Amino acid sequence: MAYDIRSEVITDIGSASISVPRLQWSCTLNDSQTGALLHDFTGANVVNFPTVLNQLNAAQRLELLHLIKSYLIRVLLGL
Length: 79
Fold this sequence. Notes:
The protein has one helix at residues 58-76; strands at residues 23-25, 27-30, 37-41, 47-49. The chain is an alpha+beta fold. The chain has a domain at 23-76.
């Protein structure tokens, strides 16, 4: 399905206090050629969502929204 987004406005409306499902992501990032460990996201370094959003600045949150908005449109339209 093709669509055009028109009259788009993104407004920072502050923080919300809501209950949402939480997810925890853990992994190691390794160089695909050498196998060298690049970063360890296990143990104390796991990523908890949505808590990780608190670590993003306003520009990073806006970039995240732009990365996921096409997915959200498809889900919300039932595609």
